[in-house]
Specification:
Elements (H helix, E strand, L loop, with lengths): L7 E6 L2 H14 L3 E6 L2 E6 L2 E7 L15 E5 L3 H10 L6 E2 L15 E5 L5 E5 L2
Parallel strand pairs: 1-4, 5-8
Antiparallel strand pairs: 2-3, 3-4, 6-7, 7-8
């Protein structure tokens, strides 16, 4: 294990079923496997890192534009894989962001797809 690498990421959601459907598809496409499941949560694992979705104990809306976490960025493989995920994402609960600048919304040398789920959690899928 490398000192400083992430152990896990935990996201709180208002609608666990909807979030698990969208995130389960995306994480599965990125190589994550279902890891744990309980009444108020689900997780997926890739190597030593796991991503958790858990029902939020308090009401309120997430807004990535407010102070706090902006987004998660994932290595997503070759550019053609990023493009396939971009094309398929809306059928799996994800909205496309920055369509007018895709796939270079992150800059002219940065091929990536930006997506947002129903609760406005943003992900960046970065081509290798």
């Amino acid at each position: 294990m490398t000192l400083g690498t992430l152990h896990h990421v935990e996201l709180r959601t208002a609608d666990l079923d909807t979030a698990a459907w969208a995130w389960g598809w995306l994480l599965g496409e990125l190589g994550y496997e279902p890891f744990q499941g309980w009444e108020h949560g689900r997780s997926w694992r890739l190597g030593p890192l796991y991503v958790v979705l858990e029902s939020a104990p308090l009401d309120g809306d997430h807004d990535r534009r407010r102070p706090g976490l902006s987004h998660l960025a994932f290595h997503a493989g070759a550019a053609d894989t990023v493009e396939r995920l971009w094309a398929e994402a809306p059928d799996h609960g994800w909205a496309r962001l920055y369509e007018d600048r895709h796939p270079f919304a992150g800059g002219p040398e940065h091929h990536a797809a930006f997506l947002e789920d129903a609760e406005r959690f943003k992900v960046e899928l970065v081509a290798s």
